[in-house]
Amino acid sequence: MAQQRRVQLSVQRPTSTVCVLGTELSLDVCGSAPKDAVAFHVQGTPGVKLYVVHETQSVKLPSSVCRWPLAAGTEVLLAMDALSKDVGDEKVRISYFREAGGVPVGRAMLYLTCVEVSLDADTSRTGAVSRTLLDKATWTWGPDGHGAILLVNCDRDDPKAKMPDNRDTAVRSYADLKDMSQMVLRTRGPRTIFAGHHLLLHVDFSNADKVGVFYGGNSVALEEYKHVLGGSKLAYTVKPSRHQEESVFYVEGLAFPDVGFSGLVAFHVTLLESPEKGLLETPIFTDTVVFRVAPWIMTPNTAAPLEVFVCSVDNNEDFVAAVGAVAEKAKCPLTVCPLVENRQDRWIQDEVEFGYVQAPHKTFPVVFDSPRDRGLKNFPVKSILGPDFGYVARQAPEGASSLDSFGNLEVSPPVTVQGKEYPLGRILIGTSFPRFGGRRMAKAVKDFLFAQQVQAPVELFSDWLQVGHVDEFLSFVPAPDRKGFRLLLASPSACYQLLKEKQEEGFGEAVMFEGLEQVPKPTINEILANEGLRKLNNYAQSCISWNRDILKRALGLAEPDILDIPQLFRGNVANGAEAFFPDMVNMLVLGRHLGIPKPFGPLVGGQCCLEERVRALLEPLGLTCTFIDDYFSYHVLSGDVHCGTNVRRKPFAFKWWHAVP
Prior knowledge:
It is found in: Cytoplasm. 14% of the residues lie in helices and 33% in strands. It has 661 residues and is an alpha+beta fold.
């Protein structure tokens, strides 16, 4: 329905007003009628379309009816579909009559000027701003949806700047402008009409701190771009140029969707009519366009690797070299974080998670910094944040726990669950349920992840572990069949079954951790006879089985989609479990190349039986297994190859706005 405005008329003096292209004017014919008038006649110049609404029927003029009764509910509507060349070049005349009179008892004259005022953005999501018939004031999901998209401008295009671009109110480079979305104000019609009317660009108070708008006028010079809207600036008066019909604004997002912010932001342009001196301006037309701030999107292990990160600390030269060798096989660049930057903190997976943001006109990676803040605290800002590489962080005011490290943050590959598609996968986080109390992920981090909408998080039970990370018992690897991946789960049951097989084959005296110094070396017989160890692993298996059922339901998996990786745990129920030997599930996945913690398992026939079992599970999928000695890890024997590395991966080909959350 066209936007409609009521216009008051007068028989004492002519009235002038503006009709905005695409809108309707409702003429108050009864309010201006002389006292004795009972009927009226209306006629207009050729550029005006007139309709009389009488007794619920709309009649287009001219018609066979010459006079219309001045009855309650009778109104005259008009529209114009061509721009005026001059001010007041079209007009409408209302003539009023007594009951039987042939001479009008009064006339009301209305002079009209048709102009165009339109606020446009890339609502069709093509990467360019264009006029459209789509409803600009709404935003819809799906492949047939519409609505403009805004990126959080969280990179740092100027290397000299001290903060991300979304924390300042300046345009420092043309690259900075390219991160922003265009919003175009079109004004057409007689330019003098805008001298007596004001155009106000404005944003709702509730969202003003979520966006910034820059305008350079007719100039292309970088220094001419000024911050005109956002933050404390709620409105900006636009002065249309006499020579240009378009004013181009650049819009940046300042904040990601989160609690209290859905991500939707509406901008309005209002045409104000200037009344007599001393009176307030009157709004006569408003156009609105809605943007959605693009979410932060996380990439799964199965996505193509683009860059591997690893930390160099004391005595881990061999580990760094081994990771580099796997990266070289995968033809993936390796970035080594030096000791001066990591300050003896090797757990780069726990510190950050790599993702990206995407709009039709631009995509760039964004690193998510955890509240963990140990030795690597400054690394993301100092060494990752930069041109076209964004940064976002969340803190834990209540104090960070181990569950706030991003080893406790994973994402599945794309899945379909009972007909519901998750084309960007589902985020997986660990928490303390079903046990009452215990550790939980910080509210700020969890709220942020849920607010992104497109990777609906699933909560798993991880507080049974001493460290409490989901990557200690699960991972994903690519596969050529079924869903395109396999879920790997640590399995004490599978490990006991393997060790029992080797015992029955006569290898009960084969020892664990052969070749390692100052480490107890239990035999297979001793492990199988250790009742305390078995009870703990029965508990660990029950926790993993609980999560297995959750994952099957949440990801739509069947048993053939899951592989059980033999693994034992040690510790106790009160303080949590940790890996008994290096945790093979905690692996580095680079395409079909896997870097797996070396388990130092029993040698049977000169081969590590644990390694051989894992090869037998994974190599039929076309995967190449490289076992990495991670003995000098912080956990001594946990073998956190995954937590000791991090991978930036290729964004999804799927466009997130095509999803239906």
